Amino acid sequence: MKMNLRLLVAAAAITTVLSGCATQKLTPPATDFVSTVPEAYEVELLKLNNEPSQAFPGGGGNMTFQYTPENALLTVVFQLQNSRRFWDFDRRAVEKDLFPRACENFADPLAAGMGLRYWYAGHGGYVTQVLTDEKCQAILNKS
Length: 143
Prior knowledge:
Blueprint: H1 2-23, H2 39-48, E1 54-55, E2 61-68, E3 73-80, H3 91-105, H4 107-111, E4 115-121, E5 126-127, H5 133-142
Parallel strand pairs: 3-4
Antiparallel strand pairs: 1-2, 2-3, 4-5
């Protein structure tokens, strides 16, 4: 009987730890961006919230998506997994490198009203400006 109770307690503890890890979401930084997108896009964008996290090159962290339908904002979250690591690059450089690619990859939802930003969560972290279709047009016309 004691052995079964120990197994039950151990199983409950493991389940609690695993479910806590699976459901832990960061609260995105505040934003002034407000928009809407057609329902067809919203359905597809909401699916991104359920995508498993992806390790980013070089290790040490992961990437997830957080789409907020209340303001049609997609936040791409890069999160460090070790508190001893920190982000050591400039927000403007990130925007210069990532925004043109995001304009291409998310062209249709951006044109429909979605906003997109990158959030580097962790030590030395920051959030980029919100990328919109208007900003994409300016970026693509410069190229």
